[in-house]
Every structure is written in C-alpha cells, then in structure tokens.
Task: inverse folding
C-alpha cells in the first residue's frame, strides 16, 4: 500500500466564507509535481473527512497506520507536509513527523457510523 496524503477540502476545511483558513491546493499539487514524489506518496484532495471541528484536516496513511492532523492554518504547516512526503519518498519507512506538525496530531472521535476500512488490493 503506497503512502498517501489526503487533504480535506470539504464543507469546512478551506472554506474561507465560514472563517476558516484556505487550503493551498495549488501549492500542494505543484510541490508534488516539482519534487516528483507522486509515485511514492499519493496526494489526494478529498471531500469532507469528518472531524470538522479540527479544520483544516489532513490524513496521512502509511504502512504503519493512520496519522490525523488538524488545525492546519498556515502555509508552513503545508510546507512541512511536503517536506514529510519528500522524506518518506526518499527514505522509505521513515514516517516521523516534522516538529511543527507534532502538536497538530489528533485521534478522531469514533461514531456509530464509523465502518472499518477494507483494502481490496
């Protein structure tokens, strides 16, 4: 399973009309392209990921599991995501978060509608 960075751009995340910080989609896409990391680390811009109170949200999926990040409000947060992805792409297996992102890690609350993820690959 390839490493994946899923960035929420749903109902709340990136919605400046609701007073939330913009999600720099073009910056992320361009960074993935410029660093040529798309084969090793997939970038997905998604609809709502769920924990809207933590906007802006990102989900990092690795072989070790899932890492949820929230309250990503500054370009430096997204730059750190790019740095993390570049590091993972070049040093397979090293998924340690940059220091600036550590305090943004959270565990989403489970609800009765949460279903297990099934990988059919």
Result:
């Amino acid at each position: 399973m390839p490493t994946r960075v899923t960035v929420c751009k749903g109902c709340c995340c990136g919605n400046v009309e609701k007073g939330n910080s913009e999600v720099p989609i073009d910056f992320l896409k361009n960074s993935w392209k410029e660093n040529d990391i798309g084969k090793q680390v997939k970038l997905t811009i998604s609809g709502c990921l769920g924990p809207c109170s933590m906007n802006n949200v990102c989900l990092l999926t690795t072989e070790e599991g899932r890492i949820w990040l929230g309250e990503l409000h500054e370009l430096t947060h997204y730059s750190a995501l790019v740095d993390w992805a570049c590091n993972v792409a070049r040093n397979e297996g090293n998924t340690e978060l940059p220091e600036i992102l550590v305090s943004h890690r959270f565990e989403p609350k489970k609800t009765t509608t949460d279903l297990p993820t099934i990988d059919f690959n």
Summary: The chain is about 25% helix and 20% strand.
